[in-house]
Design brief:
By secondary structure, the protein is an all-alpha fold. It contains four helices and no strands. α1 runs antiparallel to α4. It is elongated and about 55 Å long.
């Protein structure tokens, strides 16, 4: 149950980050040479690796019968 909830939450965050207004903000920061902020944000979130881990756990756990 934990990993299902984690995957849903991370997917929602990823969808939010991919919205046009967020992309515009990140592009603005890049153009104003605030790359350090963007790198810190990406490093702090580590969204992609954690999302893949949750998806992998869910694939395995779906096959395990839990009563």
């Amino acid at each position: 149950m934990f990993h299902i909830s984690l995957e849903r939450s991370l997917t929602h965050i990823k969808e939010q980050i991919e919205k046009p207004e967020i992309k515009i903000t990140l592009d603005f920061l890049k153009s104003s040479e605030k790359n350090k902020l963007i790198l810190m944000f990406q490093h702090d979130t580590e969204l992609e690796p954690v999302l893949k881990m949750a998806q992998n756990y869910n694939k395995v756990l779906r096959e395990v019968p839990i009563n």
